[in-house]
Amino acid sequence: MQRPRLLALQMHASRTSLSASCPTRRPRAATGFTLIELLMVIAVLGIVAGIAFSNVGGSGKATALRSAQATLANALSAARHRALARGVPVALAVHDDPGNPSRYRRMVAVVESIQTAPEVVTVFELPKHAYVLPHRSRFPEALREPGDWAGGSSQNLLGSTRFLNPGGVISVAINSPTAERWEYALVTARGTMSGSGALIVGLAQPAVGGPFPIRFESPERVRGMLVSQYGLARMIDGREGF
């Protein structure tokens, strides 16, 4: 009976000595990032963020341009309905006074009897970055960036030819204590207009040191509508359509 007990003790001693000769491994402490690795990560994040903000900015301007096109169409519709309802001429007027940069070519007003006894019906404001192009006869180089500003169909200088020319500019107080310059298109008492023409919106940036507070950016970034003599509008989504 002693032999099995002795064998068991020998095996236990053998395992004990083996455990002592092979100490338990401790998990390695997690190592942190080196300074170079951190700088590389920060640089990559900066590049990604720059690309993202650039895309968001471009998308925001495109949205502003579409919204401005819709606003201008709504203003024209309001002018036509007012003329038909009241039986008097109604103007679609766009602010054209460089002395007031916050309103310049962004404020659109529907005005009854603008040539005799002006009565403001309603006022619209275009989104940031979006402005109404003037009539091409009043669209000097100082108001636009260099480039080919010819329309795709007509090959004439782009511009809102729906505005009257000549005589499509008037000085009148519209939501202002003083008279300011406005460019306008006129809807007759029957809801018609004299001929057809375009109303165009484009993107612009503030200008410093020039005669105008803004400069239109690019002829490739315009939208608008072609308006028939009956006051009906067809939406145009790029330069090639004008």
Automatic annotation (TrEMBL):
<dbReference type="Pfam" id="PF07963">
    <property type="entry name" value="N_methyl"/>
</dbReference>
<keyword id="KW-0472">Membrane</keyword>
<dbReference type="InterPro" id="IPR012902">
    <property type="entry name" value="N_methyl_site"/>
</dbReference>
<keyword id="KW-1133">Transmembrane helix</keyword>
<feature type="transmembrane region" description="Helical">
    <location>
        <begin position="35"/>
        <end position="56"/>
    </location>
</feature>
<protein>
    <recommendedName>
        <fullName>Prepilin-type N-terminal cleavage/methylation domain-containing protein</fullName>
    </recommendedName>
</protein>
<dbReference type="InterPro" id="IPR045584">
    <property type="entry name" value="Pilin-like"/>
</dbReference>
<keyword id="KW-0812">Transmembrane</keyword>
